[in-house]
């Protein structure tokens, strides 16, 4: 009840009641002072770990790999006492970056080459050089990246296992020697893409204008099925594409480093990073260290092929890696 209403129209009290009231007030005041005073055997509980840590809102791009990695970040941080909200599958990079810079989200997984190129930083196959160049551009946006993963999701080429065994194919340099004996599945834009047609010619001496080529969507199920059904012999894929494991394809090593680095890294708003204790970066870095190309491929199989939810796939992966 409001104090003003409690005293309005009240009757004058007798002296005995007044003394009792004053005595009770003194006792209550003493209890309040005692509770607020540190030491002296106080049993007041300290604030919970989550109350001492900034709230995280994790976002992702609009495809499975980005979303499941974002969910992994979320669950790993929750295991360390952070309160985490999710805004998964926001859209393409411009949409994700807009959400990040506006503060709608404050943590996302990103790809070094893709983000560095978007920010107009220097991009190469050297992960560290690309990361360092990207970090400079991020700082200007009040953003910061943490450790990048050993795994990478870049454009690549795959062959059937029997083809690899028959022709002893392990790397793109091996394929270059027999390129004209094989049917290639390439993206429609490959002839003008610097890291496809022109890059294959300048880096590996593979001239796609002289090859047997089927034009197919890269990194697609259609491309994978064409390879599996022997309609083509070499397929343009993404290096963590679930079809590689699903059909037991051999992913060829980019031994002359044609493709730019596409390792994953957590990118956060600087205000979140500054407000968080040391275990924020430590937790994210521990996750990154476990995200190999093989592990990313397995995660993609779980969510894209086996239809496991992002939450369940992330939880199981974190347990398997000993991170929660």
General description of the model:
The protein has 324 residues and is an alpha/beta fold. It folds into two domains: 50-152 and 261-320, D-Maltodextrin-Binding Protein, domain 2; 155-251, Osmoprotection protein (prox), domain 2 (D-Maltodextrin-Binding Protein, domain 2, 3-Layer(aba) Sandwich), CATH 3.40.190.120. 46% of the residues lie in helices and 15% in strands. The protein has 15 helices and ten strands. It has a five-stranded mixed beta sheet with strand order 7-6-8-5-9. Strands 3-10-4 form a three-stranded antiparallel beta sheet, sandwiched between helices. Helix 3 links the parallel strand 1 and strand 2 (84-91). Helix 3 packs across helix 13 (278-290). The radius of gyration is 29 Å and the shape is globular. The chain starts with a helix and ends with a helix.
């Amino acid at each position: 009840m409001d104090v003003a209403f409690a005293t309005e129209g009240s009757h004058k009290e007798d002296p005995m009641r007044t003394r009792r009231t004053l005595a009770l007030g003194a006792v209550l005041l003493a209890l309040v002072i005692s509770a607020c005073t540190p030491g002296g055997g106080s049993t007041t509980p300290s604030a919970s770990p989550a109350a001492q840590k900034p709230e995280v809102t994790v976002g992702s791009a609009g495809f499975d790999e980005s979303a499941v990695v974002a969910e992994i970040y979320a669950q790993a941080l929750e295991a360390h006492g952070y309160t985490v909200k999710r805004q998964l599958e926001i859209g393409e990079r411009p949409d994700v970056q807009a959400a990040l810079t506006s503060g709608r989200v404050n943590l996302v997984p990103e790809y070094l080459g893709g983000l560095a190129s978007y920010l107009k930083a220097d991009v190469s196959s050297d992960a560290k050089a690309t990361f360092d160049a990207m970090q400079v551009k991020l700082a200007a946006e009040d953003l910061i990246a943490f450790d990048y993963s050993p795994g990478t999701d870049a454009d690549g080429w795959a062959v059937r296992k029997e083809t690899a065994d028959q022709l002893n194919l392990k790397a793109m340099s091996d394929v270059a020697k027999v390129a004209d004996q094989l049917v290639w599945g390439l993206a429609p834009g490959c002839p003008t893409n610097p890291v496809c047609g022109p890059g294959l010619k300048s880096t590996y001496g593979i001239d796609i204008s002289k090859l047997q080529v089927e034009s197919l969507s890269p990194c697609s199920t259609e491309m994978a099925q064409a390879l599996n059904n022997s309609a083509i012999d070499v397929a343009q894929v993404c290096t963590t594409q679930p079809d590689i494991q699903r059909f037991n394809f051999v992913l060829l090593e980019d031994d002359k480093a044609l493709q730019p680095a596409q390792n994953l890294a957590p990118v956060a708003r600087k205000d979140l990073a500054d407000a968080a204790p040391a275990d924020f970066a430590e937790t994210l870095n521990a996750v990154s260290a476990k995200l190999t190309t093989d592990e990313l491929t397995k995660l993609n199989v779980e969510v894209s092929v086996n239809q496991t939810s992002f939450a369940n796939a992330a939880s199981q992966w974190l347990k398997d890696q000993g991170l929660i």
